Each structure stands twice: as C-alpha cells, then as structure tokens.
Amino acid sequence: METRKVQVTGGSTYTVSIPKTWANRNDVEAGSEVEFYPDGDSLLLSPRSEEERTTGTLDISDLADRELTRAVMTMYVSGFDVIALEGSNITTEQRSTIRDATQSLVGLEVLEETRDRVVVRDLLDSSELSIHNAVTRMRLISTSMLADALAALRELDDDLARDVTQRDDDLDRLWMVVSRIFRSTLRTPKAAEELGLPREECFDYHSSARQLERIGDHATKIAHLTLNIDEPLPEEVLSAIDDLHEDAVEVIDTAMDALFEDDTEKATAMANDAREHVRDIDDRVRQIDELLRDLDPARAQLLGLVVDSVLRSADYGGNIAETALQKAAPTP
C-alpha cells in the first residue's frame, strides 16, 4: 500500500499523484485520461479505455463435447464480449457444439466462421442488463418448476415432468447471466455504476440466484424420479408431501421478499421468520418418514428422495434469508 498527500493547486483544486509503477503497468502517461467512480467513502480510479468491447481468444484444438461447452460458458461468464475460438482445423462436431452452447446462453450469436476460427459475440448492452430482473425471473421459474414437479408426481404426468426438466435450461441461462453481471462488477467499477447498484448488493443477488438455481435442480430431480414410477402413490403420503411443499415455498417466498425489501426493519423481520420456519419444516419431515416406513423399500426410498429434495429447497430458502439479513445489516 502506498500513501499520497492531497495538495491544493490554483487555490481550489485538490490534486494527488498516482504511483508510477501502476501507471506504467496500465499504460497511463502524460495526457492519458482516467475515470473516477465514487463507491461509498472510496473513490475508484480506472484507466479510460477506447475499446468498448473485450475480446478473448481460446485454443479449442483439444476440446470437444462437454469440455468445449464448458469452455464457451466460462468465457461468457468471465465477461468477454467477443469470444474467438481457434484451432488448426475446427471439426463439424466442434462447430455444432459451439452453436449449441451459444444458443444456451443469453445474448450470444455466432458472428464469423472460417476453417480455423469461430467468433461469437454478445449482442446485449451490459448497461441494459438488470440483475434484479434476472433474479426475479429465476424466482418465478424455480418455484413453478418445484410446484409442477410435485404435481407431475401426484398425477404421474410424464409430459409435465419432462416439461419441468426442459425449463431447467431457462433457469441455467439466467444463472449464467447473473454470474456474468456479478463478475463484471468485480472486474471494473464502471459495470457497477451502469447497474446502479453497490457491489455488495450485486453479491447478495448472485448468492441468492445460486440458491434458486439449486432449487431448480431439485425440481428436475423430482421430475426424473416421477418418470420411473408406474403405479399410483399413497394419498396419505402425497398429501403430507404437498403440505411440506407449501411450507417450503413459504420459506422461499418470504426470504426473497426480504431480499428485495428496502426497509431494513421489515427485511430483518421477514428473513428471521423464514429462518424460523425452516426449523418447523424439520418436524414435518420426521412425520413423513414415519409414513414411509409402512411402504415397500423401493417405493419408500424413491419417495424419501422426493422429500429430501423438497427439504433441501426449503434449506436453500433459508440461505437466501441469511443473505437478506446480511443485506439489511448496518454497513461498517
């Protein structure tokens, strides 16, 4: 850490020098322009760049299938606006994987294709993205997936179960968007300024979005389990699971309302209510376990997995409530 003394020039202008090593490393010299971003009681300084879009290049010669898909997603989440994928001879299979990965991410489109290069570009304006809207959408999708997964279980509706698994892709796309926005705020203060949110709040949204994505995963798990059931399930157990689901959704909704609440006292009260309700759910789960003891082992194990997924969804709601409490806490 280096320190500098603030000086006054011209009788009214405050000036401070910047470290030469930092200036050299960031190509700042006499005549260069820098940008200042207020952040609470801090003032962040960044070199002004003429480049509006960041470009990343990746050698995909040895990548295929899931590894290639993951590589494209990683470049996207890392914040590159233009992604150049290069190889000595890009195969048809690699091109197909790149197109599938591009279609699974919000805003990406293949811009250029040659024998040894595929260029993908993000067409969204980062200043128009809203992490709040993305998380709100994730909330609606994840809770509707959980409700429909359990409805499919009750009715043994395979079509509805398959629809739930397909909606998980929509949830994953939004999770990638939230991750991309959050990482951009860590990388540059300009991104946080364009969002109009403090970086700590972006972290809270990112943390909560992760919990919603996991709820969607458990809804998908229940849907997959449903596809393996051929005979109707006991009504007594299904009713108990419905009650458990109702309690779990109450935790999730209360926690999310607390996260979005601007009044810190109201947010704290709602978050604490959600956390207390999670403890009550544990008692309901023990009652369901008693009902499962009377079933044959295979069916009891399957329904036990369903109950566990609903319980974990409630736990994730409790995690969101914990984040809401931290968001509402006084700032040091």
From TrEMBL:
GO BP terms, alphabetized: intracellular phosphate ion homeostasis; negative regulation of phosphate metabolic process
Residues in SpoVT-AbrB domain copies: 8-53
Organism lineage string: Archaea, Methanobacteriati, Methanobacteriota, Stenosarchaea group, Halobacteria
One Pfam family matching this protein: MazE_antitoxin
Gene3D superfamilies registered for this protein in UniProt: Phosphate transport system protein phou homolog 2, domain 2
An annotated Gene Ontology molecular function: DNA binding
Name this protein carries in UniProt: Phosphate uptake regulator
Organism this protein belongs to: Halopenitus persicus
Highest rank taxon of the organism: Archaea
